[in-house]
Amino acid sequence: MTRSPWMQDAEEARGQAESGLAAKILETRTIVLSGEVDEKLAERVMSQVVILDGLNHDPIRVVVTTQGGQVDSGYAIHDLLRFVESPIVTLGAGWVASIGVPILLSAEKDSRYCLPNTRFLLHQPSGGAGGQATDIRIAAEEILKLRERLNELLARETGQSVDKVQTDSDRNFWMTAEEALAYGLVSRIIEHASEID
To answer: What confidence tens digit (pLDDT) does each residue in 4-23 have?
Structure first.
């Protein structure tokens, strides 16, 4: 099916508007990490972080609202946020699920915030494996290694024991903003930007 010229023009205009909006948001040293975490999202977020860190070392705010996604892409974002010299401030909004939680934890403990209606989800990594039995076994072993690394990161950053994190994340473990505060995922629940230190 061929798209009409006006549909192509509308798509181009929308793309330009989104690009302009992203540039305006970057001027505020804010990055919005929204949607499924994949290679494309990781590339966009990491590029924005590098640009902002290259301009100066003022704090960078990262708004996190995601259902999670690819663990390796999430770890890439987490590691780069820890790598740059600019202080990182994270703000959970909407929902912060799966690999989104370690991304939120990339900020120092006192620089992790969430809005009042944010929900959080911990669970063990999942993955589909097919093919020969040996390949399936290798994939399962990798998932277990990922789970162990995630549990250790969550325990280290929240002050919970690895055993508790492992038990909690064995199945979908939902938390409200207040429960996330008690768990150690965030340092404060805020309602206004002025509350960020």
So the answer is: 665 566 566 655 656 777 77
Q: Is 34 a catalytic residue?
A: no
- Among residues 106, 111, 123, 169, the one annotated as catalytic is 123
Q: Are 154 and 125 in contact (CB under 8 A)?
A: no
CA 165/CA 5 separation, integer angstroms: 54
Task: Please state the domain extents for the chain.
Answer: 32-189
The CATH code of domain 32-189 reads: 3.90.226.10
Q: How many DSSP H helices and E strands does the chain contain? A: 7, 7
| Catalytic residue of the set 73, 78, 98, 169 | 98
Q: Distances in Å between the alpha carbon of 131 and those of 37, 70, 146, 149, 162?
A: 26, 21, 21, 26, 33
pTM, two decimals, is 0.84
Residue 63 · residue 96 · CB < 8 Å: no
